[in-house]
Amino acid sequence: MTAAHPPLAIAPRNILEMWADAVLLLRRHPFQFVISALVLTVAGSLIESAWGWVVTTLVDESDPEPAQLAQLGTLSLLLSLAVFLTVFALTGALQAVLVVQTIVGRPVTIRAALRLLAPRIRAVLGVTALLTVVPQLVLLALIAVLSVFIWQWLSSELDAFLATGGDPVLDSVPPSPSEALIAVAVIVVPTFALLSLVWVVMALALLFAPITAALEPLRFGGAVRRSMLLVGNNLWRIVGIILLNLLIALPIILPLFVPLVLIGSIFSVATADLPSWAQEVMSWPFDLMIAAFIAWQVTVLVLLYIDVRIRQEGLAADLWQRRTAASSGTPDGGAGDPTGDTKNG
């Protein structure tokens, strides 16, 4: 670290200080934080583009039925969510190491971060796989349940219509779609709410999992349990900060979202005749903006994790020890545990 880039403070932070430090880190080290997130975002975009090409080819060649189109749409939705969560998890693991390096005064480089992350890679990949698969299973269950009830409602309406000979006028009391809809909604709405609650609880429980897998000497299962423990012990503070973070982020995102949608629509029309690879390359500026936002959000999350441990576990002493070692020129020996903390092994 140079005098122009002093280490971040080793102290508890409020949400405003987390935002300010996250922006500061992205300004100081744009390559390490933003470009690393961009590489993962572009990789995810390439996967989605390849899937889009497969879907387009299937639709053009086989002329699928509406049910098959619905299945392809569901798979596309699940893949998009899986790609986003994978990018989030891997970015979180890498940037967790980078943030700790800035705090203890070590060189902030991708190579050093990958060297420190290497002993933890199995746990990181395990957590990433968990985040990639489990939320999709919950979402798939939600879609399946809603599809079943909607199909039952449509079938009952069709049966009622056919029972009148196809002419509701012949029946003194024609079928009421509103009554059928209410009857189905009584079951669908609680089911939707329950599965949504399960998804939110699961997402909260795994919130710190990529970070704990990267920073603590734990295996896959231990990293998951550790994340659940940290979130459970600080649930309302974490939920409050996340909600506040979303509320503050929305006024920043929405003014940019509408112009981006308009530009994207014009862009898609203008590049319709270009090869798919050229369209993908020309979409990278949009990926850069997405990567910058992901990098900022993930950095705030890492700072929140460090704040929780400073407040409740005395992590500040370990970080001060590592900063002192860094300032004295002692080689970094924390390859297996970038935080320097061994209490959880």
From TrEMBL:
Keywords for this protein: Membrane, Transmembrane, Transmembrane helix
Disordered as annotated region, ranges: 325-345
The keyword Ligase appears for this protein: no
Superkingdom field: Bacteria
Transmembrane segments: 33-54, 74-100, 121-154, 180-209, 235-268, 288-306
Name of the protein described by the UniProt record: Membrane domain of glycerophosphoryl diester phosphodiesterase
